[in-house]
Amino acid sequence: xxxxxxxxxxxxxxxxxxxxxxxxxxxxxxxxxxxxxxxxxxxxxxxxxxxxxxxxxxxxxxxxxxxxxxxxxxxxxxxxxxxxxxxxxxxxxxxxxxxxxxxxxxxxxxxxxxxxxxxxxxxxxxxxxxxxxxxxxxxxxxxxxxxxxxxxxxxxxxxxxxxxxxxxxxxxxxxxxxxxxxxxxxxxxxxxxxxxxxxxxxxxxxxxxxxxxxxxxxxxxxxxxxxxxxxxxxxxxxxxxxxxxxxxxxxxxxxxxxxxxxxxxxxxxxxxxxxxxxxxxxxxxxxxxxxxxxxxxxxxxxxxxxxxxxxxxxxxxxxxxxxxxxxxxxxxxxxxxxxxxxxxxxxxxxxxxxxxxxxxxxxxxxxxxxxxxxxxxxxxxxxxxxxxxxxx
Length: 392
Ligand SMILES: Cc1ncc(COP(=O)(O)O)c(C=O)c1O
Prior knowledge:
Elements: H1 17-20, H2 22-25, E1 33-34, H3 46-57, H4 68-82, E2 91-94, H5 97-108, E3 114-117, H6 124-130, E4 135-138, E5 142-144, E6 147-149, H7 152-160, E7 164-170, H8 182-194, E8 198-202, H9 223-226, E9 229-233, H10 236-239, E10 247-250, H11 254-266, H12 274-286, H13 288-312, E11 317-319, E12 326-330, H14 338-349, E13 351-352, E14 354-355, E15 366-370, H15 375-391
Parallel strand pairs: 1-13, 3-4, 3-7, 7-8, 8-9
Antiparallel strand pairs: 2-10, 5-6, 9-10, 11-12, 12-15, 14-15
Helix pairs in contact: 3-12, 4-12, 5-6, 5-11, 7-8, 13-15, 14-15
């Protein structure tokens, strides 16, 4: 079926963090257009809604668990979408990837150990390391000519440090929206293997990939890589069902998997929310057309933002995305520090973006724009931004 992503959905009053609780996290000014936290304002695919409705109509919501068909839907999706062969046994269902990352840090490292991340990167990567008493080793991404690349020399240096045990890789990378190539991933993986560093590849954004780019599941590169990594995947970003908190942590190596499952047990994680189960199955089995259409719409949104900035506010630069629904905007030419930029965007432009500093110091002077909304909303937001810039 054809979906209409131009439809502006009123999310106010639905307990949405983005719309109803913006004041708790980002801006007290409710007149700001919320273009922050990474969920989309689009209604989700009909098969998912039908599956949830059917389950809701049963009227009994007792403890539930995943049937075989759940695992089969994940296996089929990975094969069809990424040509990646996984087994049902390798899937460890966890209620959310950030929780999984925290469990992983607790399971495979000790207090004081080092964990490599690559800033600017999704803020909770730093938190799950530091809040668990581990130490961040920042392999900061290189930014040249509006494009980010990996500093492999620095990565090698950091991986050689004997206290470094883990690397949390963001693939594709939020917020800079690079879809790492197979060659880049292979270099990362080899450096980590050579230095006994296990890789956690967070692939939550792997299904929204733009034309000309291809996502490579880290574990699909070789048997050796599969044996030295954990892949975090989920239908949450792909199908806009993050609130259902269903993620699939894929661990090929049996020994590594057993340790993770022990942690889930220790944390009291068992069974699963009944809506997450049916929604995931419906999404993976029946809603790929929605994903294809949403990607087309997002690519048009990217073009719209790109043209608008080039023609009307050329001193704000877009870091060209290769996937995801998140755009990384370079405001450095405005010469504002982090808090001045925040104040400018919220008080003068009246738009709520995620501030660059939330992704590490490397993000200062940047902000992240969520384009998972109607083009009309983006148009309105950019017009506000243009007006505020012209007043400066
Ligand atoms: C890279 C990355 N990992 C994890 C998450 C959040 O995952 P979850 O909601 O399953 O904890 C996000 C959300 O934006 C993300 O961008």
